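Students often ask why inverse folding is considered easier than folding. One informal answer: many sequences map to the same fold, so there is more than one right answer. In these notes we will look at a single instance of the problem. The structure comes first.
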């Protein structure tokens, strides 16, 4: 029998449609996989106890001749930042331990309506603050390529689940790189859609002007299939774009023919320093560019002089917005309340926030309230917003000359657990190439470009496109994916050593 967990979502969907496999069988195979390896990987915070029921319902409906969507019956992992009515939603924080939402996030509701089968909720840095998933209040997630290494963050759980074959599809959220950087370090595909392209309703807010929900998968086509399910206008989200979107799965299929690379102008940022990038990351990036060039793409040097100030601007804008968004966790409205006998309501609030929030969350609340305080607003928050505008202009100028911009998705391969946890600045610098897209609202994709020579760990290449041109990323991503797959002969993830061929994680 085929190993159901190794199929891509597209392959699984076609077997489900033909009746060769049932959703119950596919779901059971993934639950078995989770039971076998998640003790080591810890991708999940919660595993659904009714996934099989949902799957059986899909099977029944299919048997009854109901017209189901293209991915009906395929299992899905959901980042715990997205609220769900039938499973707790904690956003990786103690302050929301056991919290049950009265409604589903729009992306979750759409996933259910499309017949996807929620397997559970995945681990993440607390309130999506981090690049390693070590800031989760519930313990770190481990990278399936090497269990002593980080799976990226904040969506390390979703990326690890997909990389460890615990789920074919996962939902993530990307405020500064939390979909793309985990994809980079786990050898998976991650997409941050255009700002407003996917609803944020029910995504527990980190920084509302930067947050976007997106797909985490093993192939570009799978990401397109999931994006088609979750994307499009949502009246519940006032920043949701109203236009109709093309099918991203169709774009991926078109891209896989490779024609799109002919004459494609790929911009490479001249100011991006070579220093700070691990040698194997730079080599893999250059090799991917060369592979594209061999297919007729043109590599064009472009200037984006303000790109390098992205991290600095982001770490003022994000904490400012986060400090405001997290004010609602006040011991009264949601989750945890720590009583202070004889204390005032302020005492209860202070104690609850002290106990309920972790160190990184407190650090950012302090940073944010400082940057927004009367005397410093112009100097910090105001200046950061100006830099944001300059970065947007850099993109506008660049996209007048090129079709897509390419960068390595992150500066290094997966680092060791514990290596950067005590050095916030080092942690923040992981997102140097991903953050500008969030500041400008443009879409980005990370796809595996190969393994770094020095450590054998996965490397990702990121493509960025103008706002609303997400389909272009699927075409280009799928084209390069096809070229690289030809070179490798088998998917990169087949080489992940810590997983074994079929068995346990070690
Ligand atoms: N690593 C970044 C941060 O810590 C990105 C977070 C995110 O995209 N949610 O803010």
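Output (designed amino acids):
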């Amino acid at each position: 029998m085929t190993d159901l967990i190794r199929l891509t979502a597209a392959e699984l969907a076609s077997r489900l449609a033909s009746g060769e496999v049932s959703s119950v069988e596919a779901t059971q195979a993934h639950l078995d996989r989770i039971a076998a390896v998640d003790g080591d990987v810890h991708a999940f915070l919660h595993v659904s106890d009714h996934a099989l029921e949902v799957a059986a319902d899909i099977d029944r409906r299919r048997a009854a001749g109901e017209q189901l969507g293209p991915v009906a019956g395929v299992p899905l992992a959901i980042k715990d930042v997205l609220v769900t009515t039938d499973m707790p939603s904690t956003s990786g924080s103690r302050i929301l331990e056991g919290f049950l939402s009265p409604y589903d996030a729009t992306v979750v509701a759409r996933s259910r309506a499309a017949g996807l089968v929620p397997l559970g909720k995945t681990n993440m840095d607390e309130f999506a603050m981090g690049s390693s998933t070590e800031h989760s209040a519930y313990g770190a997630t481990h990278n399936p390529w090497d269990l002593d290494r980080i799976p990226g963050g904040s969506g390390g759980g979703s990326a690890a689940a997909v990389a460890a074959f615990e789920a074919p599809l996962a939902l993530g959220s990307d405020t500064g790189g939390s979909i793309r950087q985990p994809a980079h370090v786990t050898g998976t595909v991650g997409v941050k859609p255009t700002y407003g392209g996917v609803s944020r309703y029910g995504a527990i807010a980190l920084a509302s002007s930067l947050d976007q929900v997106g797909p985490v998968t093993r192939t570009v086509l799978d990401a397109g299939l999931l994006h088609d399910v979750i994307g499009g206008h949502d009246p519940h989200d006032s920043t949701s774009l109203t236009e109709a979107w093309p099918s991203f799965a169709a774009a991926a299929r078109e891209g896989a023919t490779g024609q799109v690379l002919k004459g494609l102008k790929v911009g490479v940022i001249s100011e991006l320093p070579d220093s700070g990038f691990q040698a194997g990351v730079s080599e893999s990036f250059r090799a991917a560019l060369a592979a594209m060039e061999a297919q007729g793409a043109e590599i064009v040097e472009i200037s984006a002089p303000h790109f390098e100030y992205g991290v600095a601007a982001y770490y003022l804008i994000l904490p400012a917005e986060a400090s405001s968004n997290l004010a609602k966790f006040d011991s009264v409205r949601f989750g945890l309340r720590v009583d202070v006998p004889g204390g005032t309501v302020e005492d209860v609030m202070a104690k609850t926030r002290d106990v309920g929030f972790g160190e990184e969350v407190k650090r950012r609340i302090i940073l944010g309230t400082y940057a927004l305080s009367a005397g410093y607003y112009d100097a910090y928050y105001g200046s950061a917003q100006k830099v944001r505008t300059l970065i947007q202009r850099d993109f506008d100028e660049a996209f007048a000359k090129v079709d897509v911009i390419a960068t390595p998705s992150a500066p290094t391969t997966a680092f060791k657990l514990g290596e950067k946890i005590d050095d916030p600045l080092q942690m923040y610098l992981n997102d140097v190439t991903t953050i500008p897209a969030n500041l400008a609202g443009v879409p980005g994709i990370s796809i595996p470009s190969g393994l770094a020579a020095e450590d054998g760990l996965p490397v990702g290449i990121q493509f960025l496109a103008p706002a609303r041109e997400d389909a272009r990323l699927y075409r280009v991503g799928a084209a390069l994916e096809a070229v690289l797959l030809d070179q490798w002969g088998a998917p990169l993830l087949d080489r992940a050593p810590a997983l074994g061929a079929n068995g346990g994680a070690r």
